[in-house]
């Protein structure tokens, strides 16, 4: 079920959300229509020909003929905002040809993806050459792991007290060598450890400990179970091919609760989106991780606070979280799951794979308090929050300081709320990033 907040949460940035609000006017839309599958409209822009805008409600997924490189564009957002607030004003009847053709092409694409996933993958053109390349890469990485272990021992023999910001240059050199050895994931871990030199030595030590664990895993890689080998490969920054995951990954059909959606700029022109799901029947948590380049945005929209019927295909892991989604259909507002102790669930994941950077958490009946920074207090525990003052005060004002249901991400030190409900079964009160 779409609401104004959930639509605005789909905006790629605040400017798009503001621009969309400015287009919520019937005079700007000479054509508006909707049925159970889609919403469509024509928006009069600066040119003589109106922009054709359409939304597949199963996603939602967007398409517009405007030249904007943002996704969804302001026209798609405005169209959905009007559908939420003025649904009765949208005409019924059959959609125009440009809508039916797009919906048909999406359905055909989904069928082809499903067929490819179910088909047996073809053998490489030269499997021996591929095996040699893989073996050579492992040799380079394992040699780099040996050098990294020696470097870690040198750092600890000097003592953390000897570390200072001037050491960052040397650490960056170590990271660059790991990139040259085709282990960019380890290089990123070294950079993260260097970022805390001086300011938070305990965090630096924790990261060095994980790097040492990775080195030990590399040294006995072939003796590890297949799932742990897959986690080690992910840690190295050696991604699995999407087609391989679809062909060989574990499938889980369920009614999935969309707990939260987070969208961040990781670097210039690179946007990362994380969609956190919970399976009502299976009890599994899942992460849909996607990236968009050069402001192109994401074709598929995800709205926190709804349930979707979908089949997920999980990446191999000792603590499977990341997954790919096959066709998903929104089936209603979520009621939120009744869960076991979140700490026990998270502890089991950490024990199985200590390298996971973010963990999904659903914190029930939490009260926000300010005590040397914002905290969420529930069940005898107080979680330090990574939350802006403006968001915290706005949420307090909306719900009058009453208990909240919070979904978000735990990074090992702080909990970052992404979605907040006042009453389970109703749309969220607040979502991070919603204007």
Uncertain regions spanning at least 5 consecutive residues: none
Rounded mean pLDDT is 87
Gyration radius, to the nearest Å?
24 Å
The geometry reads as globular
Describe the structure.
The protein is an alpha+beta fold and 435 residues long. It has twelve helices and 15 strands. The strands form three sheets. A six-stranded antiparallel β-sheet has the order 12-11-10-13-14-15. The chain has a five-stranded antiparallel β-sheet with strand order 7-6-5-8-9. Strand 6 and strand 7 form a beta hairpin. Helix 6 packs antiparallel against helix 7. The radius of gyration is 24 Å and the shape is globular. It starts with a helix and ends with a strand.
Key words describing this protein structure:
12 helices, globular, alpha+beta, 435 residues, five-stranded antiparallel beta sheet
């Amino acid at each position: 079920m779409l609401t104004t907040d959930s639509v605005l949460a789909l905006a790629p940035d605040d400017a798009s959300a503001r621009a969309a609000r400015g287009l919520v006017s019937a005079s700007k839309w000479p054509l508006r229509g909707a049925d159970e599958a889609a919403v469509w409209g024509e928006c009069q822009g600066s040119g003589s020909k109106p922009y054709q805008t359409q939304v597949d409600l199963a996603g939602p997924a967007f398409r517009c003929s405007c030249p904007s490189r943002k996704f969804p564009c302001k026209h798609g957002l405005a169209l959905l905002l009007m559908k939420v607030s003025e649904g009765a004003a949208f005409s019924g009847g059959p959609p125009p040809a440009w809508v039916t053709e797009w919906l048909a092409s999406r359905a055909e694409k989904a069928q082809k993806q499903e067929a490819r996933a179910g088909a047996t993958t073809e053998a490489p053109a030269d499997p021996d050459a591929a095996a040699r390349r893989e073996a050579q890469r492992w040799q380079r990485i394992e040699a780099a792991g040996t050098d990294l272990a020696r470097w870690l021992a040198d750092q600890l023999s000097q003592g953390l007290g000897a570390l200072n910001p001037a050491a960052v240059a040397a650490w960056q050199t170590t990271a660059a060598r790991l990139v040259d050895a085709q282990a960019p994931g380890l290089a990123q871990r070294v950079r993260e450890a260097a970022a805390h030199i001086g300011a938070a030595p305990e965090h630096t030590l924790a990261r060095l400990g994980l790097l040492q664990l990775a080195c030990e895993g590399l040294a006995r890689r072939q003796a590890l179970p297949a799932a742990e080998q897959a986690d080690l490969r992910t840690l190295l920054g050696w991604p699995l091919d999407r087609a391989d995951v679809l062909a060989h990954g574990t499938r889980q059909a369920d009614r999935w609760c969309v707990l939260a959606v987070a969208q961040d700029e990781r670097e210039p022109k690179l946007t990362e989106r994380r969609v956190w799901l919970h399976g009502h029947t299976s009890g599994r948590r899942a992460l849909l991780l996607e990236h968009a380049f050069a402001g192109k945005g994401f074709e598929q929209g995800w709205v926190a606070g709804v349930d979707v019927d979908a089949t997920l295909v999980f990446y191999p892991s000792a603590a499977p979280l990341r997954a790919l989604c096959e066709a998903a259909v929104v089936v209603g507002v979520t009621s939120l799951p009744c869960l076991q102790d979140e700490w026990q669930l998270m502890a089991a994941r950490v024990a199985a794979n200590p390298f996971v950077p973010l963990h999904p958490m659903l914190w029930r009946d939490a009260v926000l308090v300010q005590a040397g920074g914002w905290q969420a207090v529930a069940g005898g525990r107080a979680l330090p929050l990574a939350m802006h003052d403006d968001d915290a005060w706005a949420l307090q004002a909306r719900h009058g300081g009453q208990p909240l249901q919070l979904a978000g991400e735990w990074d090992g030190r702080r909990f970052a709320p992404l979605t907040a409900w006042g009453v389970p079964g109703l749309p969220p009160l607040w979502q991070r990033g919603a204007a």
